[in-house]
Amino acid sequence: MRILHLAKYYWPRSGGMERVVQGLAEGAASLGHQVEVVAVETIGRTGSPSRQRSSVTRAFSLAALGSQEIAPGYIAAAWKRADIIHVHHPHPLADVACLLRAGRTPVVVTQHADARRSIYRPATRLVLRRAAAVVVPSRAHLALSTELIGYEAKVEVIPFGIDQTRWELVPPPPPGGRPRAIFIGRLVAYKGLDILLRALEQVPDLRLDIVGSGPEGPRLRTLAQALAITDRVRWYGEYPDEDLPRRMADADFLVLPSVTVEEMFGLVVLEAMAAGRPVITTALPSAVREVNVPGVTGLEVPLRDIPALVRALETLCRDPSRRRTMGEAGRKRVAEQFTRSVMAERHIGLYTRVRAARG
What we know:
The chain has 2 domains: 2-161 and 339-357, Rossmann fold; 165-337, Rossmann fold (3-Layer(aba) Sandwich), CATH 3.40.50.2000. It has a 7-stranded parallel β-sheet with strand order 3-2-1-6-7-8-9, sandwiched between helices. The two termini are 15 Å apart. 37% of the residues lie in helices and 19% in strands. Helix 1 (16-30) crosses helix 14, helix 3 (92-100) packs across helix 4 and helix 10 packs across helix 13 (320-337). It has 14 helices and 15 strands.
């Protein structure tokens, strides 16, 4: 089967959507299918194709208009032979390419999130109308989406998956050291890192590694200084994706203290679980609650609740046995439900049904 993914960006640019597209492309290629990815190329984002089984066509961006890249070559690049076109929303440029493309090639859409600007909604709705199927990674995605209202009958829930093999080799934390938590992600307001730093102040035995960069970085460093916890926080900045398992190896558990539903899934939670680490997450009405099982694979705390977060941090700090038990439960849960191979196989099954329905 020839599968064409219309994506905004692709590896080596690291992000949630980019990793999902890579997992789908590489997973389908591993199953023997021909996969092409069309993605935007930006300055300074080049990488070796040697790690890829799929083929990638990159359209150079002339500039960015808000969150939208101006890449005219993308439209032409999207005219590839394909048995299935897989569009990843939100991506207005892919919507335009899909609508301009003639023929009866079936379209599948993955709704990662709704578009933020209403100006893009008409094209998005037209593509959703044309689509033979719409994929969401969780029931929460469907419940939170306003763009999918009226298209519920087309929706299929297929959870995101990761390449768990790169995390299975992460060794246990070094014995005898003080407990260490880790945060991995962009330093932006919705991640709730200020809440985590304020909770850390009240757990003096805990150390914290922060991996990521973003506009909140200077403010968060100033806050750490004001709280007198700089000696317990290590700032790693943006880290190469392939080296993240090395950082996870130092950690006893992961904390994702996000405070809004902009945290729709949290792939880093899956990665920590695959590495045998328990996780602390917040009670967001998003897919995060469908990944972490409170009391089994980790702990859950209410949004913006510093005392509750302090109690959760103290619980995992003081109980190595519970950390190990939760870590093993998380590893098992990922292997059963959230691997790249499971995600790819379920998508191939969907593509096959869509093609059969089109005759």
